[in-house]
């Protein structure tokens, strides 16, 4: 069984990006810039944002974090986004989720200029991805996609099962696999026989947030299994896949932690650089 080392893959990707930033700097005499807006003081969000800032600086990007208290007015945030939209030193804008209840998430997402939407959450990017056009792609599914391609570069005709239909993971993951000519089944909480669906799959991507849902006898021999879940349980952090059982069957499997997680941030940096490059054309 191949244990997919997301930490290593992310470090390799960051190294490629660092070189690319250095080349862009020579060519354009400036570097791509990422601005993150963080509202409130939720501990996980603070940690994510700190890691994003650290990684951005590591590859040579300009990185800025704008912090607001929980009580900030929606209007203040929307006006700041508009200002960043017009700032040519800002290539990518990310507003860390979740947001306080009084702020309309969709309004925030739709205020970000689609060409600076490094999360790929803007309806314009969602639509472009599903139409097969160039777009920003949400960072976590993009990371999963890159890990799958490392194991199996040719996905033509493979049967993929995506467990979970969220806008953040399941739906964009489906689009990426479709683009690679997979036959994709998207499953969710109302799916009649999830085990039977998974047993058909050459590739399983589990992104439902249910601890250890995917069991050993759900997985065909030699399947590639990508675990997006991060669930806090009494036993500590576990994924959506029962690691021990599935590792006996799968051809390749991501661990939790150390699988998909590190790729997510590296892909955010990639998206920022891609937004910069598109803006220079
Ligand atoms: N919060 C948790 N994951 C994400 C993400 O991918 N993007 C944003 N903006 N917020 C998040």
Beta-strand percent range: 15-25%
Sheet with most strands: strand arrangement: 1-11-8-7-5-6
- Give the name of the CATH architecture of the largest domain: 3-Layer(aba) Sandwich
What's the number of extended β-strand segments?
Answer: 11
* Average of pLDDT: 97
Unreliable residue stretches: none
Apparent shape: globular
Rg over CA atoms, rounded to whole Å, is 19 Å
The largest sheet is: 6 strands, parallel
Q: Termini, distance in Å? A: 44 Å
Properties at a glance:
281 residues, alpha/beta, Rossmann fold, 2 domains, six-stranded parallel sheet, three-stranded parallel sheet, 10 helices, globular, binds guanine
